[in-house]
Known about the structure:
Blueprint: E1 19-21, E2 24-26, E3 32-33, H1 44-56, H2 58-61, H3 74-77, H4 83-92, E4 94-96, E5 103-105, H5 112-115, H6 118-129, H7 146-157
Antiparallel strand pairs: 1-2, 2-3, 4-5
Region (Disordered): 132-159
Organism: Methylocystis heyeri
GO molecular function: electron transfer activity; heme binding
Amino acid sequence: MGVASVALAEAPGDPKAVKSVDGKYFDAKGDPTYNVKEDGTVDFYTFSGYRRYHAECHVCHGPNAEGSTYAPALKDSVKRFNYQEFAGIVIGGRENKTAGNDSVMPSFAENKNAMCYLDDLYIYLRARSTEAVGRGRPEKKEEKPAAFSEAEAKCMSGK
């Protein structure tokens, strides 16, 4: 009797920020991550991720990334999915078929409000996954970096 095996992606690493480039933080593996100061001030990318999550994701995945009756808690999912796997699911979509519990995550590849902010979404969800950012809108944020504005304008215009 054979045993089916499933190839799992490498789990995300420690979300601790070890590097910053133009106001965006990265972990030791080079994946985007959050930076929350002791006074609760979040980096701008975490704040942007909060905004994009509530524009595109919360209807299915629930407020504060805590899940709903038909979509999983993304704050838990990013504990298992590294950045590449997360991006693949958002870009390509995903279908889960389990006994009476079929679910479909649509592709967001054509949605600029998701794709232009893919890093930001992942960053926000990582912050929620460790409770570095609590429920609701972050009260304080860093200033918007010029690099953010430049990347946003380029992505949204398609140039």
